[in-house]
Amino acid sequence: MIKKEDLNLTMLGIPYVKSKHLNDMQSEKIIREIEYANEFQESCDELYDGFYTRNVISRHHYLTNQINKHSNSFEQLLILSVGLDTKPDTLFSLKNKKCFGLDIAANDIKNIYSYSKTKTKTKILQCDLEKDINSTILEELEQEGMIHSKPTYIIWEGGTFFISKSNVYKVLQYFCSHINIVGCSVDFMSKEVFSPPRHKKANEHLQLMEKIGAPWKSFFSEDELVKMYEELGFTNIDITLHGEYEKKSLGTIKLDNDIMYMTTAVKFSS
Ligand SMILES: C[S@@+](CC[C@H](N)C(=O)[O-])C[C@H]1O[C@@H](n2cnc3c(N)ncnc32)[C@H](O)[C@@H]1O
């Protein structure tokens, strides 16, 4: 058994939710033997109106839609803060694409795949997005088969808020300058809901993240996001409120409508 203390529990709850609510067999296989996989998800859900589960389901639907919509425009997928994301292994639209994932917990991720005897097509590389954004990571991606000149799409799901605001910008800026990034879909926690916290539940959630050693560091407003994407050279920018996808995927809106911004920016006309 993999020791609980050695793992990032924020990432483990995601396959748990996907196996329970989204019929994702790959996720089911990943967490089958890990009895504490839902521990963090349960504390979050209890504290804040089912936040963790509703957020994972809503953003999974958003990201899946965007990948399917744009899949003809890219050949490779770069997944930042990849965790145990199963999209490369479950989405038909990614079947013939090379997928690369970066994560600070790459060893944990590989251990979990190996422990659960599950294979992923994603090439997973160790990378602290706060520190390791330099030519070495580009070389490592190349060694794994990435061709930097090929049209590449970025997804960054459930990950930006663990990184400081200036580093979020730096990461996107670096990859856009060195790889042929044609588009990206990224989610961001809302400044309006969390900074300062709009209500007691938002505040308690931030405290919980601090307590488990995974503090949230960045929150954005809609204006800041548009400005950032424009500076990065994207011409087509779409910002969707979490509530819209919560309603589409779960039928009701129980969280703050604007708790998260789900964004897609592309360099082609969509
Ligand atoms: C909530 S999980 C999301 C995982 C995945 N994107 C998904 O949606 O299934 C957050 C992920 O961010 C990663 N992470 C946190 N800080 C990071 C950093 N500084 N650099 C790279 N990855 C980081 C964690 O290891 C974890 O896998």
Outline the structure in words.
This protein is α/β, with parallel strands linked by helices. It has a single domain, classed as Rossmann fold, CATH 3.40.50.150. It is built from 12 helices and 7 strands. The protein has helices spanning 9-21, 25-31, 39-47, 51-70, 87-90, 106-115, 135-143, 165-178, 191-194, 200-211, 222-231, 242-250, and strands at residues 76-80, 98-103, 123-126, 152-156, 181-189, 236-241, 260-266. It has a 7-stranded mixed beta sheet with strand order 3-2-1-4-5-7-6, with helices on both faces. Strand 1, helix 5 (87-90) and strand 2 form a beta-alpha-beta unit. Helix 1 crosses helix 2 (25-31). The N and C termini lie far apart (46 Å). The model has no long low-confidence stretch (mean pLDDT 95). The structure holds S-adenosylmethionine. S-adenosylmethionine (SAM) binds next to helix 1. It comes from Siminovitchia terrae (Bacillus terrae). This is Leucine carboxyl methyltransferase. InterPro entries: Ppm1/Ppm2/Tcmp, SAM-dependent_MTases_sf. Keywords: Methyltransferase, Transferase.
